[in-house]
Each structure stands twice: as C-alpha cells, then as structure tokens.
Amino acid sequence: MTTFPEFDLDPAILAAVEKLGFESPTPVQAETLPPLLEGRDMIGQARTGSGKTAAFGLPMLQRFKDGGSNVRGLVLAPTRELAIQVAEAIRSFSKGLPIRVVTIYGGAPYPPQLKALRNGATIVVGTPGRVIDHLDRGTLDLNNVEMFVLDEADEMLRMGFLEPVEHILEALPEERQIALFSATMPAPIQRVSKKFLNKPVTIQVESSELSVSHIEQFWIRAPQRRKLDILLRILQGDPHGATLIFTRTRRGCGEVADGLTKNGIPA
Ligand code: AMP
Are strands 123-126 and 101-104 parallel, antiparallel or unpaired? Predict the structure, then answer.
C-alpha cells in the first residue's frame, strides 16, 4: 500500500491531507499522482467518489505551491455545483499555501467574479459557458495556464458543452499539462483527447472499486405518478436514520420535499 508521504508533495500539502483525515491514497490517487507530478498528460476513467479531485488537485498544488497572481491552473466542471465542490476541495488541500482559488460559473452575477479575478487567481474552477464569457470579455487570461483539468468530460458532452470546451482548449498555451477525467469514453471525447493531449497516460480504475461495498444498492422501476407513494413506503418501513435523496431537477426536489413533509416526514 502506498502512503501520501511517499509522493513528492510539499509539507503543507501533506499536512492538509492529514488534517482532512486521508490516511492513504485511493486507487485513483495512487495511480494518477506519479504521472501528474511528473508533468505528463493523463486520461483518467474515474467517477465522483473515487477521490479524483485530490488526484488532480494535489499535483496541481504541488506545481503551484509558490503561488502567483497569474492564472496557472484551470479546471472545467460541467455544473455549477460541481465547480463549487471542486474549488472547495482544492482550497481545503491548499491551506498554508499562497494559492487563491476562484470559482466562475453561470447563473450568478459577474461583479464578484470579476473582482475575484482582478484580485489575482492562481487556480480558476469554472463551467465552460462562463469561462468563455470571461475570455470574450478579456477578464480571464489563459496565457499562463500550466495545467488544465477537464472534469467529467462525458457529462460535458452530454450537456452540449463539447464545442465550448474545444474553444477553451484552443485558447491554452502550447506548453501545458492536461488531465482529462471521464467515467466513460465516448468517441467525441476520444477525438478531443487525441487532438489536444500529448502522449497521455491512461488510468482506469476497476469498476468494482467505483462503488462502495458497504452500501447496499437496489432500484425500483416506478411510473412518475407513483414515485412519492413508493418512496414513502420505503421511508416508513425499516428505520433508516438520516436519508439523502437526489432528484434530477430543482422543481422535483421541491415536490419531493413537500410530499414527504405533508406525510409526516420532515424534509
Ligand atoms: P471526489 O471523488 O474527489 O469527489 O472525492 C470523494 C470523497 O472522498 C471526498 O469527500 C473526499 O474528501 C474523500 N477523499 C478523497 N481522497 C481521500 C483519501 N485518500 N482518503 C479518504 N477520503 C478521501
């Protein structure tokens, strides 16, 4: 088993990782850290939950540990929630380093983002549309980017972001390191990898490691109109303790919460 101190990481990064309670690298981290620390391009087939944020975040911080007010790292995430989550994770790994992480995403006002960019960002985490907007307005300069991460590339494709992503890739300097993460590798993603990545190392985590063994998983096929009823029956059955429910849309989220509350389950 590998341990974090075996990697060539700054003491501040090791301390942050230890403080977060990470005892040993996850399989994705154990495989991605060496090539990324060497500066190689990489394609990682890994899902959320595999520890991939630290897998690219730690090498990024190692490279940028001396800080700088130019944007040296750019991470693209498909959604605003993911961008926020990735930025928070990177901030938590960078405690004690002179690194500023700025998040830019759509659906939010420009002034705070502009101010944050003007104050100097070492790493920008953003969604493709808003990153392009800032590029077009001249408020984001990618000329000094040393490392670029495309997170959840297949989700980007599914959401119709492939074109903006290519546009951003074209705006990067010739000399840069790229890490592309995707749970699946559809043809358009393979084409983008071929076009923009330089002799990438490919890392694939066995699918059995992508789910957590102590969590039992099952699914129920249900028509839309019966979903609440079935959910109530599950929740009113065996005691479950606290429960997390994910829905596809904001509206659906409200409807489920209302339905549960009306039936005596505070949500
Ligand atoms: P991610 O796949 O990057 O979203 O990470 C999933 C979760 O695993 C996050 O809550 C991380 O904080 C956590 N995590 C990442 N790496 C490790 C590690 N080496 N040991 C324990 N937890 C970790």
Answer: parallel
The atom of ligand 1 lying closest to the CA of 25 is: 19
Q: Which two tokens stand for residue 193?
A: 């990898």
Nearest CA to ligand 1 atom 11: 51
Using the mean position of ligand 1's atoms as its centre, give its distance from the Cα of residue 51 in Å: 4
| CA angle, 53 then 59 then 60, to 5° | 80
pLDDT digits (tens, 9 = 90+) for 121-169: 999 999 999 999 999 999 999 999 999 999 999 999 999 999 999 999 9
pTM score, whole prediction: 0.81
Q: Is the dihedral of CA 109, 83, 182, 170 positive or negative?
A: positive
Nearest-CA residue for ligand 1 atom 15 is: 51
Distance CA 83, CA 64 (A): 19
At CA 39, angle to CA 35 and CA 41, rounded to 5? Answer: 70
- Opening angle at CA 32, ends 19 and 159, nearest 5: 95
Nearest CA to ligand 1 atom 18: 22
Q: Show the ligand 1 pocket: residues with CB < 6 angstroms.
A: 22, 25-26, 29, 48-54
Q: What digits encode the pLDDT tens for the residues 77-89?
A: 999 999 999 999 9
